[in-house]
Design brief:
Helix content is about 20%, strand content about 10%. The strands form two sheets. Strands 1-3-4-2 form a four-stranded mixed β-sheet. The protein is elongated and about 105 Å long. The chain starts with 8 loop residues before the first helix and ends in a 13-residue tail after the last helix. The C terminus is likely disordered. This is RBBP6 ligase.
């Protein structure tokens, strides 16, 4: 009992460290088993009895193929298993009664097989009219990047915009600066309706829901 021991604090600390490490002393390590293994011991390498795995005759034999290890169906209800006769079947397990079985869900999955999508398949072409006939760039507003609505032409550089977009842009600018050519003092009243876009837009290439020019 260190609390009642008549010793210095340093000696008590050393004794405490020694006691705490006592269980980890190498003298307590498990020693290698000597002699023949128990009758119920099976080598995990070759599956035979009579020797430990470290003494297996197949050690170092590159041509040796280890037998398939069959898992036990511990924890899986018998009603969830399907008995099979072939122990080499994929996913097979050993039941408590010594029968070979496969979980029902695995058996169904193996029966269906894995269906993978072949690589490099061409993408499905969309039936959308936008993808088949994209809207030309000249019909898109330079501000909102959408199909122009009530298209108007700005006199300074001749570009076309939505009427609402360009008017809002000029009114919000202190010097009424054109968003494209940066010319100042461009009056919103100077905007000109773009009659060409109103009369010559190809309706077959633009979705009806967007055709609001």
């Amino acid at each position: 009992n260190l609390a009642e021991t008549n010793a210095s604090e340093e000696d008590k600390i050393k004794a405490m460290m020694s006691q705490s490490n006592h269980d980890y002393d190498p003298i307590h390590y498990a020693k290698k088993l000597v002699g023949p293994p128990p009758p119920n011991y099976t080598c995990f390498r070759c599956g035979k009895t009579g020797h430990y795995i470290r003494n297996c005759p197949t050690n170092g034999d590159r041509s040796f193929e280890a037998p398939q290890r069959i898992k036990k169906s511990t924890g899986i209800p018998r009603s969830f298993m399907v008995e099979v006769d072939d122990p080499n079947r994929k996913g097979v397990m050993l039941t408590n009664s010594g029968m070979y079985a496969i979980p029902t869900i695995d058996a169904e999955a193996y029966a269906i097989g894995k269906k993978e999508k072949p690589p490099f398949l061409p993408q499905n072409q969309s039936s959308s009219s936008e993808e088949e006939d994209p809207v030309p760039d000249e019909l898109l507003c330079l501000i909102c990047k959408d199909l122009m609505t009530d298209a108007v032409v700005i006199p300074c550089c001749g570009n076309s915009y939505c009427d609402e977009c360009i008017r809002t842009c000029l009114l919000e600018s202190d010097e009424h600066v054109c968003p494209t050519c940066k010319q100042s003092d461009v009056s919103p009243d100077a905007l000109i309706a773009n009659k060409f876009l109103h009369t010559s837009v190809p309706t077959t290439s633009i979705p009806k829901v967007l055709l609001i020019l």
